[in-house]
Structure formats: structure tokens, C-alpha cells
Design a protein that fits this description.
alpha/beta; single chain; 11% strand; 6-stranded parallel sheet; 11 helices; rod-shaped; 273 residues
Length: 273
């Protein structure tokens, strides 16, 4: 009985909604210039009535019946009912495995983007415009001028970092050599490594001197934002004149000043290895 009353109420609301629709169309057919305050009030009232009717139509006619839980068949005494019980999940309820998969997708979407080497170089160098760097022990495998008399070898692990620095900075390389032949070996090694063709470095920015004081003078004259060196004495002397310095040392050393940083290698300082 209650169900039939509700059906009649729904049909009545539907007919009332149709009636309101016809009235609304007639009202809108009137020219907007001829609308007075009463007509506007009628339109507003009809609009409220339509919204109220629509909300009534959207509500379900009655409470939904809860589906009874399905129970697993009882085990028989014959031993043939060794079936495992099955858990029935209501529709619309996600399983734990689905929640885990959804969470994994969200984690992948919002995973922080790893910065590129170029971005790290720019951040580490603090937007520096000019950088000076010694060759021995930083760019080359050799660590003494005497070794350069036998040959020069560019470290392959430092190439990528070096080329990124040349993209953003004016880079000058410098070293103390004992003879002209050592100088030629160094330039040839840099050329074979592709530094002059792939990066922004030119041969005129590779400087050579015969003393450590000469390398210090080069740095003072160029006034770089960063200087990279392996000699702790030179690093300490230049800390008063250079904005930032990077001391390349295989062992951890005490910082001579707050503007001096230390790293076992150039590539490790920029996190490329």
C-alpha cells in the first residue's frame, strides 16, 4: 500500500513538473522589454519550484533493500565439502590489492622529478659566470708536471661535468708545465677528448705557466666566481680574493674559510658518479 502511494506521488510530481515546464516556456516567449516586477517574481518562483521538483525526483522512492550475505555451504560429513570459504565484497568497495595499486599510481605521478646534471651544475655554482680550474688531478689523470712529460690523459668520468660547466660558464683551464712538449701533450689530450668541439672551451683559454705562483697570478687576474684546485696552499691564499673555491682532495681536509668547499673529485662534487 505504501509503495502504491509513493508511486502516485512520483507521478503527480512528474505531471507538476511538466506543467511548470510549459508555463516556463510561455513566460520566456514574452519579450524581455515587457517584463514587470510581477513577471520577474513569477519566473523566479517557477525556477525555485523546478529545482525543488528535480531534487524530489532524484531521491530514491524508497530505502534500498540490503542484500543478505551469502553464506558458504556447510561442510558435509562425507568429506566432499573441502571448498574454501569465499568472501563476497559489496559492489563499489575496493579490495586492499586495488588500494595498493591505486596508491602506487599516485606515488609515481607525484614522485619528485630528478634534476638534470645541467641543473645541478648551475645550482652548485650559484649561477657563476666565470670559472678557473687547474688540470692536474682534476681534469687529467696525471698529478705532477713530471708525469706530463710522458703523456696526458683526460679522465673520462669528468668529461660530462666539464662540458656542462662550459655551457653556463666562461671556463679557463691552467697548469704548470716543465717544457713545451708537455704543453702540446695536454692540448692534444683535451682535443682528442672532444672538449674543444663539444663544449664552449677554446684553446686560448688553456693557460700554462712554469711556477705555482704563476697559476695564482692567472686566477687573480681573471677574477673568477669559482676556482678549482688541488693545492691547499693556493686555495688558502686565494680564499680572500675569490668568491668560492673547490678544493679537490682524496682525503677530508679542514676548511680554511667558509667560502671553500672540498670534494674527492669534480664529478663527485656535482653528484655525477
Amino acid at each position: 500500500m505504501a509503495e502504491s502511494s509513493k508511486e502516485e506521488l512520483v507521478q503527480l510530481i512528474k505531471r507538476f513538473g511538466a506543467f511548470l515546464t510549459v508555463k516556463m516556456s510561455n513566460l520566456f516567449s514574452i519579450s524581455f522589454h515587457n517584463l514587470n516586477s510581477r513577471s520577474v517574481g513569477a519566473v523566479a518562483g517557477l525556477a525555485v519550484a523546478i529545482v525543488f521538483t528535480w531534487r524530489l525526483l532524484r531521491t530514491p522512492s524508497g530505502p534500498q533493500r540490503r542484500q543478505p550475505k551469502r553464506q558458504a555451504p556447510a561442510a558435509s560429513s562425507s568429506g566432499n565439502s573441502s571448498h574454501s570459504n569465499t568472501t563476497f565484497m559489496p559492489s563499489g568497495v575496493s579490495t586492499p590489492s586495488e588500494d595498493v595499486r591505486a596508491q602506487n599510481v599516485v606515488d609515481e605521478l607525484f614522485q619528485p622529478v630528478k634534476p638534470t646534471l645541467g641543473q645541478i651544475v648551475r645550482q652548485k655554482l650559484s649561477e657563476a659566470r666565470k670559472v678557473t680550474c687547474r688540470l692536474l688531478g682534476v681534469i687529467l689523470d696525471e698529478s705532477t708536471p713530471e708525469e706530463l712529460q710522458k703523456g696526458a690523459t683526460v679522465r673520462s668520468s669528468v668529461l660530462e661535468v666539464l662540458l656542462e660547466i662550459t655551457k653556463y660558464c666562461d671556463l679557463y683551464l691552467m697548469e704548470r708545465v716543465l717544457d713545451d712538449e708537455s704543453e702540446k701533450k695536454v692540448v692534444l689530450a683535451l682535443e682528442d677528448a672532444g672538449i674543444f668541439t663539444s663544449g664552449g672551451l677554446v684553446k686560448d683559454k688553456v693557460l700554462f705557466c712554469s711556477t705555482e705562483i704563476g697559476r695564482t697570478s692567472f686566477v687573480r687576474q681573471l677574477e673568477p666566481d669559482w676556482h678549482i684546485d688541488t693545492n691547499p696552499e693556493i686555495v688558502s691564499q686565494l680564499s680572500r680574493f675569490i668568491k668560492y673555491e673547490l678544493h679537490i682532495s682524496p682525503t677530508r681536509t679542514e676548511r680554511p674559510a667558509s667560502n671553500v668547499f672540498s670534494s674527492p673529485s669534480l664529478e663527485q662534487f656535482f653528484g655525477s658518479v
